[in-house]
Each structure stands twice: as C-alpha cells, then as structure tokens.
Amino acid sequence: MTAQKLDGKATAAAIKDELRGRVDALRERGVVPGLGTLLVGDDPGSQWYVAGKHRDCAEVGIESLREDLPADATQAEIEAAVTRLNEDPACTGFIVQLPLPAGIDTNRILELVDPAKDADGLHPTNLGRLVLRVGGEITSPLPCTPRGIVELVQRHGVDWAGKEVVVLGRGVTVGRPMGLLLTRKAVNATVTLTHTGTRDLPELVRRADVVVAAAGVEGIVTGDMVKPGAVLIDVGVSRRTDPETGKSRVVGDIAPEAREQAAWYSPNPGGVGPMTRAMLLANVVDTAERQAGTAS
Ligand SMILES: Nc1nc2c(c(=O)[nH]1)N[C@@H](CN(C=O)c1ccc(C(=O)N[C@@H](CCC(=O)O)C(=O)O)cc1)CN2
C-alpha cells in the first residue's frame, strides 16, 4: 500500500493565506491583532519555536511583542510579565512558551493568563469550555496542536466520524485536549487515550483506524502494530544526533516503516509542527475578531 502524505507545510500555507485576508479586514476596521510571547530561559528549541511564531505573525500581518526572561527568573518575575501582557492593549493574545524551567509552577502561570487573551487555549477556563461544550460551536480558543491535527486530516478529505482513534500520551498540550476535541459531535470519533500505565498498547493500536502518537518516545509505534489502511499522525519530537556529522535531526514516535501499512501519514517534520504554528495564528485572529465583535 502506498500511503498518502498529510502535508502540514502546504496546508499551513493555505491557512495562512486565508488568515491574511481576515487580518486585512480587521486592520481596515482599525483593529490590529498582536501576539505576545513569553519565553523564559535559553533552551535552543524554545527559542527557535518563539522566533518562528514571530516570523509567522509578520507573514500574515499580525503585530508581535516579546517578553524574554533569563533562565533564573523567579515565579514572581514570570507572573509580573504575564500581568504586563494581560494589561497591554497592543497584545490581543499571547502564549507562555512551554516548558518553563524546573521549579516554576506552570499551572499557576497559565491560570494567570487572561482567558480572553489565551492564544494557546490552555487556560483552565478555556479547557473547561472544551469539556462542557460537546455540541454546537466552540467560541473559545482551542489548544493549537489538537486543533491543527483535526484540520490537517479534514483538509485532506478524510472524515473523522466513526473512526476508532488511539491517542498515545496524556499531556496537557496534546493528548488530553485531543480526546476532548475528537469526541465532540462535530468530529464524532471514538477515542482511546493511552499512557504509560496502559496494558497491551500494541493490541490497542492494532485496532485503530487513526493513531495519534504524542508519547515523546522515538519509534514507539512500529510497523507490526499498524492496521492496514490506518491514518498515522506523528506528534513526537525526539532529537537524534548523528555521531559522525554532529548534526541533530527530529525523529518521531512512529517508526518510518510503519507507513508501509498506512493509507495516510503525517511526515515529521513537515506535518503537525507547521499546523500547530498555523493554529496559533488562527487563535489570534479568532480572538481579535471576537474582541472587535466581527466573529463569523
Ligand atoms: N506554549 C506552547 N508551548 C509549546 C507548544 C505549544 O503549542 N504552546 N508546542 C511545542 C512547541 N511548538 C510550539 O510552541 C512547536 C513545535 C514544533 C514546531 C514545528 O514546526 N516543528 C517542525 C520541525 C522543527 C525542527 O526541525 O526542530 C515540523 O514539525 O516540521 C512548531 C511549534 C512545545 N511547547
């Protein structure tokens, strides 16, 4: 079977084109969307992701603001930066880049974000709205990676309804909200959310029409675990350094040979990552439209 690619790069580019038009319309009405980022520390990966978010904003006409703090910033200093972004009228939405350094109470920081400016959809109020709203439309920001995965699959003409989905990983940014999003009436998939305490993971994966792998364990999904015709979504971002060249590259949770069984697969890189970035922009534009009273 030759699996088809769920092209995250091309899909994200198409979404950015759509968003550019919506940003132009907001600007014509005097509304300027602005994304704030709060980065603590000097982790190269996080620095790269934040720089990418600012480049994306420039591409679609969203203004951007940065709050960068050193790795030894205290809880109080980080909370003060969140308060500045909450109060800055030029910032219509913002994110706190995760992970925060060890010793920082991440949940307390996320709870301080004004839910109306929560561009990541990770504030308890917005996660709570996702829990409460099973049918109808959701008018609060959604976590970017799960939202991106739902769109990536739908925009390739693949229907989620009735599919048996196995999600690997119960993290707050991907696994847990993924289950909530996929079981909404508008999507209508059936979800098994697995984790390190799950017994017989291979057997569960073998039954899945769609596998969303967000365990952060290189190659945890192997070819013998994949049902023929399955859809494979790889969220894993492990890094492997070539001992000869010293160069590092991203490796996912799904072993490359597993694609041989699949009908569709998301490449990694080039699949879920670009969609996560595009959905952050979508959340910023949605939020600015709501604040301006022009949401469709
Ligand atoms: N506040 C948040 N923190 C983090 C999130 C998030 O959604 N909100 N997700 C990840 C990091 N992340 C965005 O912040 C992110 C990760 C990966 C990509 C991406 O485009 N990856 C590329 C490959 C990049 C590489 O080679 O290293 C790809 O998949 O093609 C974008 C954003 C954790 N923190």
Automatic annotation (TrEMBL):
Residues 6-120 form the Tetrahydrofolate dehydrogenase/cyclohydrolase catalytic domain. The keyword Aminoacyl-tRNA synthetase does not apply. GO terms for molecular function: methenyltetrahydrofolate cyclohydrolase activity; methylenetetrahydrofolate dehydrogenase (NADP+) activity. Pfam families: THF_DHG_CYH, THF_DHG_CYH_C. One of its GO terms (cellular component) is cytosol. One of its GO terms (biological process) is purine nucleotide biosynthetic process. Residues 143-291 form the Tetrahydrofolate dehydrogenase/cyclohydrolase NAD(P)-binding domain. Gene3D superfamilies: Leucine Dehydrogenase, chain A, domain 1 (3.40.50.10860), NAD(P)-binding Rossmann-like Domain (3.40.50.720). NADP(+) binds at residues 169-171, 237. InterPro entries: Aminoacid_DH-like_N_sf, NAD(P)-bd_dom_sf, THF_DH/CycHdrlase, THF_DH/CycHdrlase_cat_dom, THF_DH/CycHdrlase_NAD-bd_dom. Its EC number is 1.5.1.5, 3.5.4.9. SUPFAM superfamilies: Aminoacid dehydrogenase-like, N-terminal domain, NAD(P)-binding Rossmann-fold domains. Pathway: One-carbon metabolism; tetrahydrofolate interconversion. Keywords: Amino-acid biosynthesis, Histidine biosynthesis, Hydrolase, Methionine biosynthesis, Multifunctional enzyme, NADP, One-carbon metabolism, Oxidoreductase, Purine biosynthesis. It catalyses: (6R)-5,10-methenyltetrahydrofolate + H2O = (6R)-10-formyltetrahydrofolate + H(+); (6R)-5,10-methylene-5,6,7,8-tetrahydrofolate + NADP(+) = (6R)-5,10-methenyltetrahydrofolate + NADPH. CDD domains: NAD_bind_m-THF_DH_Cyclohyd. HAMAP family: THF_DHG_CYH. Belongs to the tetrahydrofolate dehydrogenase/cyclohydrolase family. Catalyzes the oxidation of 5,10-methylenetetrahydrofolate to 5,10-methenyltetrahydrofolate and then the hydrolysis of 5,10-methenyltetrahydrofolate to 10-formyltetrahydrofolate. Homodimer. This is Bifunctional protein FolD. It comes from Isoptericola sediminis. The gene is folD.
